[in-house]
Amino acid sequence: MTKQRLVILGGGESGIGTALLGNAKGYEVFVSDNQKIKEKYKQVLIHNEIEWEDEKHSENKILNANIVMKSPGIPDNVPLVKQIRKQGITVVSEIEFASKFTKACIVGITGSNGKTTTATLTHHILKQELNVGLAGNIGDSFAKQVLEDDFENYVLEISSFQLDDIVDFKPEIAIITNITPDHLDRYNHQFKNYVASKFRIAMNQTKSDYLIYDADDKVITNYLMNHPVQSTLLPFSLRRTIENGAYLDNDKIKITIDNNQIIMPTTNLTLEGKHNIKNAMAASTVAHLLKIRKQTIRESLENFQGVEHRLEHVLKINKVQYINDSKATNVNATYFALESMDAPTVWIVGGVDKGNNYEELFQFVNEKVKAIICLGVDNEKLINTFGRMVDVIIETQFVSEAVKIAYKLAEAGDNVLLSPACASFDLFENYEDRGRQFKNAVRNL
Q1: pLDDT for position 224
Q2: Distance of CA 267 to the CA centre of its chain
Q3: Which Enzyme Commission number(s) are on file for it (predicted)?
Q4: What is the DSSP letter of 262?
Q5: Strand runs (DSSP E) across 250-344, as ranges?
């Protein structure tokens, strides 16, 4: 029998993981990357005798594939991808490919914001009592973990780009945290395409699977009304009583599944802000479904340390709190950050604008923001939008300078918040790089 040929486009974390898994499962594997493959990944390919190329795509080695695994970073409208599809070659994401080789119970988490926190928190609770891996958009690739660890359960953080290339993938438990406009450049600037993409997480689910979602999110509830899913629905809400699912009653989270109710106090949650109560509800609902003890859930919620670059308290200097929210790459994420500020705030914002509409931030900027520091190559839109709302608005292209300016502007009791509402690619490698530079600058004050 001839070997199936697996071609992998993109030699990053997901690509290398898929190459290793495919190689172990008897595929003839070829990895092709248009950019330079990182040295550490190259070494893995060489060590495992997997054929690869970088800084080019050789069509003669790609178009003879039986199956192509495409990195989520590569858009569908690239000529090479169009050609692959035109030839009838199946294109899948790493999530789709790896799920074929595990019988594990999968918890899949998507949404515009909150998915990393919800995934990390869910994993933090489950790992107290279950054998569970954390993968997807986070940590070691899912494919690599399926090959090396084969956990009995996985919590996967899944982006819309990864969902675009699933075929049969089906999580037993799916979560949609929220849906707000993001990445529209990849969806023909049509919000409805992006929404449909998120809902692919439930497309293969049946009645015995669960969809946990924010019932306060009109985009989600409207979509469900017009496009019913097969899944058993478990909504969560801060505003109304939920019979099957989770809701907030005074300061208590109440979760009911099949008449079995658990109650969690929110007074000792380590995570601040209303949006984090929602993340806690989603994670606790998963834990309750998977029969984790109530005591364990409560303790885990109270000792969870949060996610790096997400409302991360860096240092307090001269009674000023410096907060790193570099992961806020869209307006909705920054909305949550500003909403949770409880003191006058010097706000550092800017980067690559993805067609942002800043209107929903106006109320918080008027109430809480005393000065704005624009950190980007092109800050014109920010200055036009917020220039009249604050007394001080300053531009810079250096994090170290932004932090020094903030240090001069902030007084005892104030916050300095980096929450860019934009992508980071104009001045930084990625949002992690931006967040680390911010933290280093604060520590060097």
Answers
A1: 97
A2: 26
A3: 6.3.2.9
A4: E
A5: 252-257, 260-265, 312-317, 320-324
Residue with tokens 């998120």: 198
Amino acid, res. 224 = L
Q: How far is residue 411 from each of residues 235, 338, 390, 418, 445, measured CA to CA in Å?
A: 42, 18, 16, 17, 15
Which strand (E) or helix (H) includes residue 109? strand 105-110
Closest CA to 37 of 19, 18, 55, 14: 55
Q: Which residues are annotated as a binding site for ATP?
A: 111-117
Tokens 């020094």 — which residue?
404
Structure tokens at 229: 């899913």
**Token pair recorded at residue 250:** 């005074």
Which residues sit opposite 153 in a β-bridge?
105, 132
Closest CA to 260 of 245, 240, 281: 245
Please, which pLDDT band fits residue 183 given cuts at 50, 70 and 90? low
The mean pLDDT of 199-211, rounded to a whole number, is 98
Q: From the annotation, which residues make up the binding site?
A: 111-117
- Burial of 14 per CB tally in 10 Å (0-12, 13-18, 19+): buried
Count CA atoms within 13 Å of residue 94 on its CB side: 35
- Give the model confidence (pLDDT) of 358-373 as tens digits: 999 999 999 999 999 9
> Residue holding tokens 């940590």?
139
Task: Enumerate domains of the chain plus CATH numbers.
Answer: 5-92 (3.40.50.720), 98-303 (3.40.1190.10), 312-443 (3.90.190.20)
Mean pLDDT for the chain overall: 94
CA angle 232, 237, 238 (to 5 degrees): 170
Pairing of strands 105-110, 132-136: unpaired
- pTM of whole model > 0.85? yes
Do strands 153-157 and 132-136 pair parallel, antiparallel, or not at all (unpaired)? Answer: parallel
Number of neighbours of residue 251 by Cβ within 10 angstroms: 11
Measured distance CA(115)–CA(87) in Å, rounded: 35
Q: Give the pLDDT mean for 215-236.
A: 96
Confidence of residue 274 (pLDDT cuts 50, 70, 90): confident
223 residue type, one letter: Y
Terminal CA-CA length for the chain = 65
| Residue 267: CB atoms within 10 Å | 8
* Token representation of residue 313: 């308290």
Q: CA angle 159-80-143, nearest 5°?
A: 40
Phi/psi for 347 (5° steps) reads: -105, 125
Q: What is the pLDDT of residue 343?
A: 96
